[in-house]
Amino acid sequence: MSIAENIQRTRLAAGLTQEQLAEAVGVSRQTVAKWESGETSPDLEHAATLADALGTTLDALVSFDGGGLGLGAPPRGRHLFGNVKVGERGQIVIPKEARDLFDIQPGDKLVVLGEEGQGLALCKEDIFLAGLELAMAAARRSVE
Asked: Reduced to 3 states, what is the DSSP secondary structure of residue 59?
């Protein structure tokens, strides 16, 4: 996906008009329209300000590819790693980029969480248990 498409889709996902985005970046609405049409591209200084205004990273704004899903660049700290195929026995392969980012190593245990109608989430077991321990300690303190 091009930076032009990422600017437009991310702006729309953020609920901003071209005018609002232009004001946040310090340019005219026509400049934003030219960026979104691909007629021009933002210079590096404006691109960094643009990424901040859209709540994403410069890297995501420039290189994010939503795989034809029509999505804008993800917010800072959130990632779309692509899709995976579920094997016959329910196995999936976590994309390498995700394994590297979250330091998931062979043999690590993951907790699978789910909410009907919402989806699944994975969490490293040690992090999940540490969070659970903190929650239980807080609950005990509130009872005392």
From this structure: helix
CB half-sphere exposure, 119, CA atoms < 13 A: 2
pTM of the model: 0.56
Higher pLDDT, 13 or 76: 13
β-strand pairing of 119-124 with 110-115: antiparallel
Q: How far apart are CA 117 and CA 9, in angstroms?
A: 25
Nearest residue to 54 (alpha-carbon basis) of 22, 80, 98: 22
Contact indicator for 6, 71 with CB cutoff of 8 Å: no
Neighbour count for residue 28 (Cβ, 10 Å): 13
Which residues 6+ apart lie within 8 Å of 112 measured at CB? 120, 121, 122
Count the neighbouring beta carbons within 10 Å of the beta carbon of residue 73.
29
Distance CA 19, CA 119 (A): 36
pLDDT of the residue at 41: 93
Neighbours of 22 (CB within 10 A): 20
Q: Compute the C-alpha angle 59/63/69, nearest 5°.
A: 125
